[in-house]
Amino acid sequence: MGQWIMRFATCIIFILSCFFLLGTTDYDPEPLTYEVEPGDTLIEIAAEFGNFIWWIDIYKANADKIKNPHFIYPGQELEIPTHIVQDLRLTVTTDDVNRVLAMNKKFEREEKEKKDDKKLKKFRETFNQLVEKKKKRKEGSGVDSYEGLGFGGMVLDETRSKMGRDFYAIFYKHWEDPKDISNFTITVSEQPTPSRGTMIQIEIDNQLVFRNRLEPRYYKTEKAAKRAVSLCKKRLVQQASIQNEFAGY
């Protein structure tokens, strides 16, 4: 009786082992296509699938699409070799992988935005403190005119939304005072429009110079900010030219 039970148990173990081996051998993962996002590298993509060394396999699998392994561009679709996908195990589907990758990308973007917001907030606080110091110094000296903050004029930030702050940061980054022009104030403000983005406007000494509706796309915000820089410089040069003409009479 004991031997029969032992044989029966052995058969059961053998059958289960066969099922396991067959299931593992027959596993044929779905082909996976990965869409490259801004900032991606082959090493980072491979690391997201479990091992950075797999970048070589990914490169070889897409040799017809990638001329230089150090250069891939956003929107490019790369084939992930089946043995890499298989290593994610049997219960993981392509949708699961894409969902996890999307969540990871979203988390990284949110973390970066938080850091950028903190830096911008600190910058705005420091800048506003400088403005207040300059105003107090001006009031204390009794002088009617001022020379800005040591760089010709002031660029004030009165934005409130994330898009508005991005616009101001880009504008300020690219701004340079026109030569020999000082004593002016540029104010960047916004008027949020529900479900339609936000309306940015720029005034020079309380005169409207630029107005534009922003969309939630960074590259469009950057383009609008650079255009605004160009327009503001032209307006200041025009105003200075007119003032010089009147001064000549």
UniProtKB/TrEMBL annotation:
PROSITE patterns: LYSM (PS51782), PROKAR_LIPOPROTEIN (PS51257)
Entry-linked PANTHER family: PHAGE-LIKE ELEMENT PBSX PROTEIN XKDP, POTASSIUM BINDING PROTEIN KBP
This protein's UniProt keywords: Signal
SUPFAM superfamilies in UniProt: LysM domain
Gene3D superfamilies (alphabetical): LysM domain (3.10.350.10)
Naturally occurring in which organism (per UniProt): Fodinibius salipaludis
Ranges of residues in domain LysM: 32-80
Role according to the record: May be involved in the biogenesis of curli organelles.
Name of one Pfam family that matches: CsgE
Entry keyword annotation includes Signal: yes
Keyword check for Transferase: no
Designated name of the protein: Curli production assembly/transport component CsgE
InterPro entries: Bact_Kbp, Curli_CsgE, LysM, LysM_dom_sf
